Structure formats: structure tokens, C-alpha cells
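Posting for a labmate who doesn't have an account.
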Amino acid sequence: MTKGNAASELFGKPGSLLFGTPKPKPAITAGSIAATATITPAPTANLVNTSSSLGYFAFPQGSSPSYLVFGVGVNYASSRFPEPRITTGDAGTPREGLETKPDVQAQIDADYEAHQQLLNKLHKERLMREAEEARKGEEYWVSCGGVLRDEFGRRDMERTKAIREELKLREIEKRLMEMWEEHERRWKRLVARTGAGVKSNSPSPHISSNSIFNQPETTTTTETTSTQYLTFHDIPWPVEPQDSDAQGNNIRPVTLQDLTRERIEEFLLKPLTVRGCTISRKERIRSSLLRWHPDKMSAIIKQTDPQQKEDVMEGIHAVIRCLQRLNTGS
């Protein structure tokens, strides 16, 4: 016997090792035949699929199609969802508490609406933060010399140019605001040192003929040393120094020749062009007239170095003439 025939004898036939060890057949006798005749034959298995939805399962004849799930027969043909049941009270009416009252339902709706509004608010805030972060990233990239790209990966020169112009405008506005804030700080230090404008809170912007320029010089009884005198450069003149280094530090101080109408007007009115500024042109001119009024400047002139007093008075006069022309519109 070959090796293939041996395998066939062992595993290829019913009763072989493939199907398990066969049980010995009982011997047929006359008693066993009589006993078999009185036994009701078992129903044969229906191997034909009578319904396409039941699959290829064998069911006994005459039984309803049901599936055995963990040994429990479930008839899917007759199964349905259970009807909802409402527990009733003694009178046969629905028990109290099962139905939602109108005020309770209104509170539930109000809480739901409030929750939805909160979610919408948080969602909008998150979108705003993401947009702000994206804008800062684009501005930083453009400031480093980069070029933005659109959603298709193409170079977006128009948007890049707009951001460059915005960054340039911000630098100009920042410089103007810093220049004006420094001017205000110098004025505060000067007022604290000389007490200018303390006695006269709101003098008239109109300059009379009896101004400090027409009054004779008077000497004070208090002796003042040369180290306490004010100089021409200690006064915060309303002009921007033209000569400055890369950090904005002044190299050449302001001189009397720098006090021209064009430069004074540019210094006073150009910061008003900064976005977000709420001060009007008329308010700026009026406040400057009150600041440079001769009655307030008299305290500064009295503490000025006698050698520079003439230049200081001429500079104050030049500023006042410019402010009066701006006020009249001439």
C-alpha cells in the first residue's frame, strides 16, 4: 500500500479517523425489530431553504422558522417592539410625574438655549483666536522677507504687498506716538521744575499787548546759580529733530532756525493721523495755545540763563505766531 492510499484509508472515508472513532453497530435481533416498530418516526430535517431570508439552515418540518440564540428560540417573524406602557393610578389616569409640566419644560428649554448660546460664544472666541494667531504668523513671515501663498500654493503678491504696507504704516504710527509721548514727558519735567502754569490754570489763548515780550525784564531777589538755569535745549520745542541715528536718538539738538511754521505744524498735527486718535485738530491747537501762553511761559523765562534768554523768548514768540495762524486758518 502506498503512502497516499494509506492516508485515504485513514482520513478519506466515513468512519475513519477524520470523522472520529466509529461506534460499534448494535446487533439486530427480533426484540429490537419489535421495539422499533412501536416508536414514532422522528420528523425529517428540511434541508430546503423555503425562505430566502432564513439562510441555509435546516429546520424540522412543521416548525416555525426561528433562530436559536444561546439556546432560546426567538421567532423573528412574529417579534415586535413592546408597546410603551404608562403606569396608571387608582382612577385609571396616568400617574402624576410622568408627564412634563409646562413650567418644567420651559425651564428645560431656557437652560438648553443658554447652553447653546454659551457654546456659540466659545466657538466664536476660538475662531477669533485662531484668526489672530494666523494673522500674526503671516505678518511675522512677511516682516522676515517671506512671500505669502494662496490655498493652491501660488505666490500671493497682492496680499503680501498689503501686509508690507500695513507693517510700514504701523512703524510710522509707532514713531509718531513715541515722539509725542516723549514731548509730553519733557513738558511734565519742565513744569515740575519751574512751576510753569501752576497759578494760571486757564488763561485766554489771545495774546495781549502786555505779554512777556513787551514787559521790561525784572530781576529776582533770589540768587540763582548757573547750574540751576534753564537753557534753550531744556525746553521741549514742538519740532522733530531732523538729525537722528538708527535708534532714534537725537544727534543735533533743536536750534532757533528749526522753529519754522512747517515743522511746528507737522509736529503738532501729524500725530492726529494715527488710527484710533480721538483728538481733533481744533482741540490740539487750542491746548497748544494754552500751553505756550506768555503768562505761563513767564516762569520759564525767569529761570532761563541770561545769555540764552533772548533766544528762548524769540523761540516762544515763533511758536505762538505759528499757533495763531493755525487757529485762524491763515
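Reply:
Got it, the C-alpha cells are right above this. The two ends are 132 Å apart (CA to CA).
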